[in-house]
Amino acid sequence: MAQREERGREPAPGLVRDLTRYRRRPHGAERTAYVGMAVFLGSWAMLFVALFFAYAFLRARAPSWPPLDAPPLPRLLPGLNTLVIAASSAAVVRATRSQELRRPRGVTAALAAAVVLGAIFLLVQGVVWSGLWRQGLVPAGGPYPSVFYAFTAFHALHVVVGLAALAWLAVRARAGGESLRTDVRLWGWYWHFVGVVWGVLYLTVYLA
Length: 208
Hints:
By secondary structure, this protein is an all-alpha fold. 79% of the residues lie in helices and 0% in strands. The chain contains 7 helices and no strands. It has helices at 2-8, 14-22, 29-61, 76-100, 104-134, 143-175, 181-207. Helix 4 packs antiparallel against helix 7 and helix 6 packs antiparallel against helix 7 (181-207). It starts with a helix and ends with a helix.
């Protein structure tokens, strides 16, 4: 009986202890920061929803969509970009978990991977723009190209902001000496939001 009680007091295995720490609830300023980011992302989500409604309105009123003289939008490269940005979100999730487990090397490596993947996303997007431009699809060519470039450029701008933040977090994580728990989580939310918007954009603009 005594041995059984002693066994019950044994410390939790490493994995269980790690998961317990990972699920630690935010307190005080952390909770306030999370609410602030949620409001911020909610406002941007409403803006993107408005843009999607405007896109649907223009599309519904157009006699043909895309216009008959417009080059077709590529699907392969944007589809590849969907996988790339999904992989970058997975890297951010890994960075968040490594931060919770206080593994700065893991945080730095995961954030660096997310930054590289985000840069690849922008590079591929640039290739798509360049190819369409050479085929005559320019922003001044009417509602269809102007909406396309405005939509994709606005999203790319958000990607640039996220990349800058993730790169800065990677530098700070490599330097060590400070807790990045809240920062990594908040910018992780932002990066996942950018990825979700791209997924909807890919389905509605490139595939539909």
